[in-house]
Design a protein that fits this description.
The complex is a heterodimer of chains A (about 180) and B (about 650).
Chain A lengths: L6 H23 L19 E2 L9 E2 L9 E6 L4 H5 L1 H9 L4 E6 L3 H11 L3 E7 L3 H6 L6 E5 L5 E6 L4 H17 L1
Parallel strand pairs in A: 3-4, 4-5
Antiparallel strand pairs in A: 1-2, 3-6, 6-7
Chain B lengths: L1 H28 L9 H24 L6 H6 L6 H7 L4 H22 L5 H25 L23 H4 L1 H24 L5 H32 L10 H26 L3 H24 L12 H25 L14 H30 L9 H21 L10 H26 L3 H18 L12 H26 L1 E7 L4 E4 L2 E12 L3 E12 L5 E3 L2 E6 L2 E6 L1 E5 L2 E10 L5 E9 L2 H40 L5
Antiparallel strand pairs in B: 1-10, 2-3, 3-4, 4-5, 4-6, 6-7, 8-9, 9-10
The chains are: A alpha/beta (about 180), B alpha+beta (about 650).
């Protein structure tokens, strides 16, 4: 192998290294954001039809969203501690007029009922997602998460993690925007 | 006082490093420059000063001097002494000081003993070493001073991250650092040889012990890190392709390739430019790894204290050293004359396959590790995991293992198929026999199946070179090769067996439950809270019986630390010669039962036995090479003395 004929290849290595360092510098200058946003924001809800997760409340299907009214879709589980922490904020959202529906992940009816007894029930419908199928289809990577769905069933916003007090106003804004855009 | 003393020693060492660089440049540019005589003493004194600075930091940690900011942030007066000392390097500043110290010690050692290369090449090498060193001194003194005081000093320290309060882990980072620094020495030798156009077999022989040593420590570091992740994280896996794991794997892959190409250069004067390039790449990978880990631009299970200014600093060093070395390489590589030629069926040919495969795997791991970063630049989030790494790396790993089985049987320069036909056929038959037997009896997946067959082939191929030789007179480096290759076979067997045959149970457990996993019966005898020095835990007292044998007791814990607050899982392991039972206690469920995960992992321990064997092979080679060099040096000196006395040599 004669390297004089491979000069360009040597400079290619230099160029690749510099491109790599450039990439490093670019990423270093950007703020780090560890949240993985769902790729479905701006897209219609995936089709699903879930049975009821607790006695006395209907289940949840994607067709329930197509009535022109924007809603919050809360992904939660009775075994999830942050879900307990966000219960008062969900209650506050309902108090301000939001309609909240939910998907319970890998749960048992008696546990969901105990959860609603203990922490209050802000939901009008809860679908039971026993194998996380709908959760995965929504692009949600954990519990709790809350999606804003407009009146045509399009996901307009995703909130990752538990809802803190300051998030209540943000979510109400998103909900209003979803309502006016429809 | 001791802290200020350490800081002063560090500043002096940095000044000497600058002196070493300037004197080396003068010496390389003008033959016979008086300044050149300063280079070696400067390197030696610098090593002593760095050692003092590190000793000072060890001391302030040992006595828990809380007026030093670093001690207050990472130590605690009630911590056991060994963890206080480990706290010295269990943080960014201290670990950087350790890095600089090991590097200075290595530089001092070369300066004092290495006389085989032309003096001008040595000056260039020591110059490169001090140039790299200066950057790290600047980083340490300007952006991460370990001796900063805290006024007023707090009454108590913060403590060390509980996951790190583990004896195995206390020695994991230093092991990797010694490996990285060894590669920096190889880098300096490569730059020195390139600058003075002295890419010779002698250069390869001088560089080789450093590469061997670095590689041995990296092997141990990765093996220990993998075992730590396995028993400390409680996830039951031994390799997660996490960015930080990859950061330690990439220099190892490059060092493994370098080790083999340096052997070709030393023995046959071939692969000159390639060996230099690998020398640069191996250290580059250590630096890139350090950058990825410390800058926090990739998401990893390893949460290091992240600071963008530190990231920028390491990036600047990266551009300076790696960019600089690659530019010098591009300018000079054309002038490195072509080495000796060899036939494709030869030892060199097999080693070229090894180098190409290792480089390809390195490229694959690098691409997979950086790909999320690349797509993020275009606001697309992806994560790259085992579904990419395992099959894609296997494309090169599988043929590499096949060549590894026969390579050591081949002669240098040129060999004929007729000569090696018998052993090659024997190896092929062994591999096929294992393949068929395992496939017929178990029907496992393709990759583990190939792994088992190749492990058998490599094991046989690595011991065949011993056939017909006097084992007592066999040189140590040959033993090293045999044992390291055997280690590869053992580790591959462990990986294949674990992935093919492991069994898992996840249950919500309560006292008195009887469980089965694989050939094991498990019984939960008690579930009770226990308290340790700085934690409380829920402990499951369990009895495990293998296939009806007398029960063995083990107790997995779910631990709660309070300073700092954190949950960890303390897994219970029951080890047999043929594998491990792994039990991890999780969280309490709502009805008062506890999540319990049990795995039966046949032969999983062979993965780490293999790693240790590989490192042991490296050690034997290293000892063999160093004692060989010393003996040769002694002989040269005796001849010179006899000449001086006027006697016939």
């Amino acid at each position: 192998m004669n390297l004089t004929r491979l000069r360009w290849a040597l400079w290619l290595i230099v160029a690749l290294a510099l491109a790599l360092f450039g990439l490093f510098a670019l990423q270093l200058s950007r703020p780090k954001d560890d949240f993985v946003q769902s790729a479905l924001v701006g897209k219609p809800l995936p089709a699903f039809d879930l049975p009821p997760a607790a006695q006395g409340l209907p289940g949840l299907a994607s067709t329930d969203f197509a009535d022109g009214k924007p809603r919050l879709l809360n992904v939660f589980a009775s075994w999830c501690i942050p879900c307990r922490a966000e219960a008062p904020q969900l209650e506050a959202l309902r108090g301000q007029g939001a309609e909240i529906v939910a998907v319970a992940i890998r749960d048992r009816p008696e546990d969901v009922e105990a959860f609603l007894q203990g922490y209050g029930n802000p939901f009008t419908r809860i679908g039971a997602d026993e194998i996380s199928a709908v959760q995965l289809a929504l692009g949600s990577s954990g519990v709790p998460e809350t999606f804003v769905i407009d009146g045509r069933g399009i996901i307009t916003h995703q909130h990752i993690g538990d809802i803190r007090e300051r998030d209540v106003a943000i979510l109400m804004d998103e909900l209003r925007r979803a309502g006016s855009g429809a | 006082m001791i802290a200020e003393f350490g800081l002063a020693a560090l500043w002096l060492a940095a000044a000497l490093s600058a002196l070493q660089l300037l004197a080396a440049i003068a010496g390389v540019r003008a033959e016979g420059s008086a300044l050149a005589a300063l280079v070696r003493p400067a390197a030696a004194v610098q090593a002593a000063l760095c050692a003092l600075a590190f000793a000072a930091l060890l001391y302030v940690f040992a006595v828990t001097d809380l007026s030093v900011k670093l001690v207050a942030a990472y130590s605690h007066s009630e911590k056991p002494l060994i963890f206080k000392l480990a706290g010295t390097w269990g943080n960014h500043e201290g670990s950087m000081l350790l890095w600089v110290t090991v590097m200075a010690l290595a530089g001092g050692l070369i300066a004092l003993i290495e006389r085989r290369l032309p003096e001008r090449t040595m000056l260039a090498t020591l110059g490169a070493q001090s140039f790299v060193g200066l950057g790290f001194y600047a980083f340490l003194l300007l952006a991460s001073n370990p001796f900063t005081r805290l006024d007023p000093s707090p009454a108590q320290g913060n403590g060390l991250n509980p996951s790190l309060q583990d004896l195995g882990l206390a020695f994991h980072p230093p092991t990797l650092y010694i490996g990285y620094v060894g590669l920096s020495v190889a880098f300096s030798f490569a730059v020195g040889a390139l600058v003075t156009r002295q890419v010779t077999p002698e250069f390869a022989r001088v560089m080789r012990p450093w590469v061997l040593g670095a590689w041995m420590f990296l092997t141990l570091g990765i093996t220990a890190g993998s075992y730590w992740a396995y028993y400390e994280l409680g996830w039951g896996g031994w390799w997660f392709w996490d960015p930080v794991e990859n950061a330690s794997l990439m220099p190892w892959l490059a060092a493994t390739a370098l080790l083999h190409s340096a052997s070709v250069l030393a023995a046959r004067d071939a692969l000159r430019a390639w060996t230099i390039l690998l020398g640069v790449v191996a250290f580059s990978m250590s630096m890139v790894g350090t950058f990825l880990v410390r800058s926090g631009i990739l998401t990893s299970v390893h949460a290091f204290a992240v600071d963008p200014t530190r990231g920028s600093f390491i990036l600047a060093l990266l551009v300076l050293y790696i960019g600089g070395a690659l530019v010098v390489f591009a300018l000079r590589a054309g002038t490195v004359t072509e080495g000796e030629r060899f036939a494709s069926l030869s030892r060199e040919g097999a080693l070229v396959v090894n180098n190409v495969a290792l480089s390809a795997i390195l490229g694959i791991v690098l691409l997979g590790t950086l790909y999320p970063l690349l797509t993020e630049a275009f606001d697309v989030r992806v994560s790259v995991g085992p579904p990419y790494f395992n099959p894609v790396a296997a494309i090169f790993f599988v043929p590499m293992l096949a060549v590894l089985a026969v390579g050591p049987l081949l002669r240098w320069r040129r060999d004929s198929f007729e000569r090696v036909r018998a052993p090659v056929v024997a190896i092929a038959v062994a591999a096929l026999a294992v393949l068929l037997a395992v496939w017929l009896f178990t029907g496992i997946d393709l990759l583990p199946l190939l792994g088992m067959a190749l492990a058998a082939a490599v094991a046989l191929g690595s011991v065949l070179p011993l056939a017909g030789r006097n084992l007592l007179r066999l040189p140590l480096p040959v033993w090293g090769m045999v044992i390291a290759h055997l280690g590869v076979a053992v580790a591959v067997f462990g990986m294949a067996a674990d992935s093919a045959f492991q069994q898992e149970r996840l249950v919500a457990a309560s006292v008195g439950d009887q469980l089965e996993v694989g050939p094991w019966q498990a019984e939960i005898r008690a579930l009770s809270p226990v308290a340790g020095p700085n934690w409380t835990a829920m402990q499951a007292d369990m009895a495990f019986s293998y296939d009806g044998a007398p029960a063995r007791l083990a107790a997995p814990q779910s631990r709660q630390f309070w300073s700092p607050a954190q949950n960890t899982s303390e897994v219970a392991l029951v080890t047999r010669w043929n594998g491990q039972l792994y039990a991890a206690l999780g969280e309490e469920t709502q009805d008062g039962r506890w999540q319990l995960r049990l795995w039966w992992k046949p032969f999983v321990t062979f993965i780490w036995y293999g790693g240790v064997l590989i490192a042991l092979g490296g050690l034997l080679s290293l000892v063999g090479r160093v004692t060989g060099d010393l003996r040769r040096r002694g002989a040269v000196r005796r001849i010179a003395e006899r000449r001086a006395e006027g006697l016939p040599a």
